[in-house]
Amino acid sequence: MNDYPKDFLELLNSVTAKRPRTVIRHILEHGFITSEELKDIYGYNHPPRAIRDVRELGIPIITYRVVGKDGRNIAAYKFGNPTDIKNNLSKSAGRTALSKELKQSLIDKYGAKCFIYLEIMDESALQVDHRIPYEIGGEIDEKNIDNYMLLSPSANRAKSWTCEHCKNWSEKDRNFCSKCFWAHPENYDHIAGKYEKIISLIFTGDEIEDYNKLIKLSSKENVSCFVKQLLHERLNGEDKF
What we know:
Elements: H1 6-13, H2 18-30, E1 33-34, H3 35-40, H4 47-55, E2 61-67, E3 73-79, H5 100-110, E4 127-130, H6 134-137, E5 148-151, H7 153-164, H8 168-171, H9 174-178, H10 207-217, H11 223-235
Antiparallel strand pairs: 1-3, 2-3, 4-5
């Protein structure tokens, strides 16, 4: 602990929220913390979220890989350079909580649905997130609601995990993020740096019967591959069905 600058230690000791404080105290005592320890010792089933809590306080955290108990590579986290504390993260207060008014404005404009999965949901289940991750883009004025998106809890977790494992997490290029599926699923060039496209399909009501037919026609093969085959044949005049 004595190896860290005084102002850095003061920032660490100023954290009172349970989850980020738990991470901070463990790293101070052991030098690092792993995703395995976050799950097994502290019961955090989504380790990147706990680490994100720390980063949102302006505290630099480095992600690297170590070998877990079962021999697989797992994520480990340690403090970065104390001089990398970001002044634009409103220092130890962390980021500003997004308002209820912002969420309602998004719902009024787009409806109560997840931007990623396009699933209609109960308004209370939806979460507001920055289109460009806060850790990269910083705080943005809520007056422009199109800088934000509505996500289901599962989509928010998937986005957090993908962004934290993207090369841009360390490079922090806003323009790169703005062209990513996870920021603008309605118009994007890549998915976390990969030249890919994705369509999310949800079957409800009478559509369930169509889904069941797809399962039967695919002969238990990968349904996604089968759907792509059907589309390819239809678009190229080779429709056999």
